[in-house]
Amino acid sequence: MVVLRHEIGDVLRDVRQRQGRTLREVSHSARVSLGYLSEVERGQKEASSELLSSICSALDVPLSHMLREVSDRVAEAEGVVIPDTVPQELSREFVGDIPDELPEELRGLASARY
């Protein structure tokens, strides 16, 4: 069974370690205690959205990127393939005739959805 707090902690730790930063540095920048950050990274504490935002800011990583990495890991653990989505710009109100220069894989998705 996938535990979300474990995946979040693993991603945060991976990002921090890739940057060569210490728990102390990130905890100071995020304004969270070193012990609490350590518990979040080890999946022992469930971090609030505000705390996750603060940690991501301290790591200079958009919250959305961290959550996407977590989502990808959870999907992999579940054996689910997450398809790339059609860009938001291709919404019903803007799509008339599908342009020829649109890549074939997107043309099929746009045709099927609209």
Automatic annotation (TrEMBL):
Pfam families: HTH_3. Residues 12-66 form the HTH cro/C1-type domain. Gene3D superfamilies: lambda repressor-like DNA-binding domains (1.10.260.40). Keywords: DNA-binding. InterPro entries: Cro/C1-type_HTH, Lambda_DNA-bd_dom_sf, TransReg_Diox_bact_type. The keyword DNA-binding applies. The keyword DNA-binding applies. This is Helix-turn-helix transcriptional regulator.
